């Protein structure tokens, strides 16, 4: 079967899916499954999205609809490598995309061989965006009031996030800006056919294949597809398809109202008004020393005393205290251990705190709609925006390296993890280094194994 035949079959499947009920959302793997120790071997499973190997419980993520909204930006943003031939025609596509009044499209994400999950997004620059995703997850962003609301209708839960328009992607969903920032020297694949109509075809290559089909008359995209042969942990393929584009259709402003249904539990992630200001440029992060004057292992009250009230405190897990490995059995009569994530989105970072072990990890967040940029640095002077070479010169070859949609370098004996997008550092984490008594094996699929060294 030729590539054209394959594309036509896939397009028929997509068209058929439009009228089908939304498929069940298959949740991506948690950031890190709790370490399982058998004898002297521990295997950590990482999701390739910047986890450090220390967030030991799945967080209540911006799943479903939110991921699809941000996936448009992430998928397009990484495709910046020049292709083989120059194309003024793609510049026409970029120009045609600019200045849209409204945009509606669908996103289908394919994780390995699993059925795709489907999200429909509507965006109006300057007003907001609205995404309806799988399993009843709805995400509404209102740029005027600078808030984003995530509704989980199955769980009857709502989170209201503060939006940092001036610090993040601007006052639209980023589609226009990202399309215009793509290189004009896209490789032309010539004309083709889509849904019985002649189209223009363009391609990029970066980690995987990215193809855009555009209308030859309007020059606007009709179909955008990203394929990564090894885009997920376990070297599984990843495919993301954007389709059903509708430009400049009338959209009611009421679609972006942040109304929370009655009976829903409500949590807020917003900058406290009475919190003392902190200049994050003065903060130095160290896996052994801590962050500024806050040492690693500091109890929650010391963390809050210095950084102030968090934007949001998220309980990750409650569990009985356990004996040391390899027994790892519950200790009767002891108070349960509470693991919490202290969100300081307005300062650009998160802190993981255990009631038993205090501060166990510090992570600066990727800059985006709901997080400001962290302006501090590591104890070796590395800041966000650094290159992979900058990190390698300081820390040497990583013990664990994964490259899916992003590049993740881990130095587990040093207590560092660095996440890169487009070759630039977008997030880093500091956590307790593992003992030199353990050796680390990179499994090559986004996971690593640590084993007690033989004496």
Features:
mainly beta, 2 domains, single chain, eight-stranded antiparallel beta sheet, outer membrane lipoprotein receptor (LolB), chain A, twelve-stranded mixed beta sheet, 6 helices, disordered N terminus, 14% helix, 455 residues
SSE inventory with pairings:
Layout: H1 3-18, E1 36-38, E2 41-45, H2 65-77, H3 88-97, E3 103-111, E4 117-124, E5 128-132, E6 137-142, E7 147-152, E8 157-162, H4 175-181, E9 187-194, E10 197-206, E11 208-214, E12 221-232, E13 236-247, E14 265-269, E15 284-286, E16 290-291, H5 300-307, E17 312-319, E18 337-344, E19 349-354, E20 358-364, E21 377-378, H6 388-395, E22 400-403, E23 407-411, E24 416-421, E25 424-431, E26 438-442, E27 447-452
Parallel strand pairs: 8-14, 15-21
Antiparallel strand pairs: 1-2, 2-27, 3-4, 3-13, 4-5, 5-6, 6-7, 7-8, 9-10, 10-11, 11-12, 12-13, 15-16, 17-18, 18-19, 19-20, 20-25, 22-23, 23-24, 24-25, 26-27
Helix pairs in contact: 2-4, 3-4
Gyration radius from CA atoms, angstroms: 23 Å
Number of structurally distinct domains: 2
Low-confidence stretches: 1-87, 167-173
Based on the structure given, which CATH architecture of the largest domain is correct? Clam
CATH homologous superfamily (4th level) name of the largest domain: Lipoprotein localisation LolA/LolB/LppX
Q: Which fold name is given in CATH as the topology of the largest domain?
A: outer membrane lipoprotein receptor (LolB), chain A
Helix percent reads 10-25%
Count of helical stretches: 6
């Amino acid at each position: 079967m030729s590539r054209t035949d394959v594309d036509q079959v896939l397009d028929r499947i997509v068209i058929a899916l439009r009228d089908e009920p939304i498929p069940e959302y298959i949740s991506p793997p948690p950031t890190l499954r709790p370490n399982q120790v058998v004898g002297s071997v521990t295997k950590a499973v990482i999701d390739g999205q910047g986890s450090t190997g220390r967030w030991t419980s799945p967080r209540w993520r911006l799943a479903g609809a939110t991921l699809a909204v941000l996936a448009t930006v992430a998928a397009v943003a990484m495709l910046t490598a020049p292709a083989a031939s120059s194309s003024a025609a793609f510049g026409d596509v970029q120009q045609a995309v600019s200045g849209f009044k409204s945009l509606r499209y669908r996103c289908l994400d394919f994780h390995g061989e699993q059925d795709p999950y489907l999200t429909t997004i509507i965006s109006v620059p300057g007003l907001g965006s609205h995404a309806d995703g799988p399993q009843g997850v709805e995400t509404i962003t209102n740029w005027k009031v600078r808030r984003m609301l995530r509704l989980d209708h199955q769980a009857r839960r709502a989170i209201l996030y503060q939006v940092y328009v001036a610090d993040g992607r601007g006052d639209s969903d980023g589609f226009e800006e990202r399309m215009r920032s793509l290189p004009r020297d896209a490789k032309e694949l010539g004309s083709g056919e889509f849904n019985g109509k002649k189209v223009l075809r363009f391609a990029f290559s970066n980690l995987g294949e990215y193809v855009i089909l555009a209308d030859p008359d309007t020059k606007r995209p009709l179909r955008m597809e990203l394929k990564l042969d090894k885009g997920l942990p376990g070297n599984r393929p990843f495919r993301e398809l954007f389709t059903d584009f509708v430009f400049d259709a009338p959209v009611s402003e009421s679609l972006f109202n942040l109304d929370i249904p009655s009976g829903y539990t409500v949590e807020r992630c917003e900058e406290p008004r009475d919190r003392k200001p902190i200049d994050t440029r003065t903060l130095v992060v160290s896996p052994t020393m801590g962050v500024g004057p806050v040492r690693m292992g500091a109890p929650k009250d010391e963390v809050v005393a210095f950084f102030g009230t968090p934007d949001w405190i998220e309980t990750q897990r409650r569990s009985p205290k356990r004996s040391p490995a390899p027994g790892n059995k519950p200790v009767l009569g002891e108070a349960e251990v509470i693991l919490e994530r202290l969100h300081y989105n307005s300062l650009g970072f998160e802190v993981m705190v255990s009631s038993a072990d205090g501060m166990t990890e510090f992570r600066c967040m990727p800059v985006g709609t709901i997080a400001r940029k962290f302006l501090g640095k590591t104890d070796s002077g590395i800041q966000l925006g650094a290159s992979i070479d900058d990190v390698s010169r300081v820390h040497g070859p990583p013990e664990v390296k994964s490259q899916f949609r992003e590049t993740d370098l881990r130095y587990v004996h040093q207590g560092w993890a660095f996440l890169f997008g487009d070759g630039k550092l977008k997030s880093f984490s500091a956590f307790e280094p593992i003992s030199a008594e353990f050796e680390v094996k990179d499994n090559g699929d986004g996971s690593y194994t640590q084993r007690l060294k033989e004496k």
